[in-house]
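Person: At home tonight, work slowly through the protein below, taking as long as you need, and write a paragraph about the fold.
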Amino acid sequence: MQETYVGCDLDGTIYRGNCSIDFFLFCMRKTQGLNMFFLKHLGNYIKYLLRFHDFHENTEKFYRFTPELENPEQLIQEFWDKNIRKIKKWFYSLHMENVLIVSASADFLIKALQERLNFAGYVATQVDLKTGTVKGGRTCIGKEKLKRFQQEKPEARLEAFYSDSKKDRPMASAAKVSYKVKRNSIKIWKTRNHAGR
């Protein structure tokens, strides 16, 4: 039987903000010695804006703080204890057994969120907590999201897709119907592939 999913981006779509950045700032308050990473992140972000590196290179550098965490699993749980409130209320109206989170954020953050909310699954950037390195290919963003979805869920069909980002147009085009999210406003997202449907 073909699996049918409702796909959701995470950051800015169902989560108010960026959970990876929020997690780093949370860890910085809890762990001594991470201040130097703040300056590195700031420098890397400026280089990204100036196009000295692409998004994937930025991601590879971002998670290098995780080897410095003494008890990362505990910090992840404490992070969601505090930040679960940033999940938007409309998300809870979806049928969790059909929801698939497709995100550029780290899989270790989304796995912990799945354990709390019991959504069906996720496709995310794979990050090794012990080394801070990105595994399994490139950052899960833009065209890579659709590629990874098709690789990991080859028999699946997207009934709907929600996102706040234009970068998610490939995923939006693959869904039967797509929605553009802006804060708490949700509107139909018309893409070229939806024309005539």
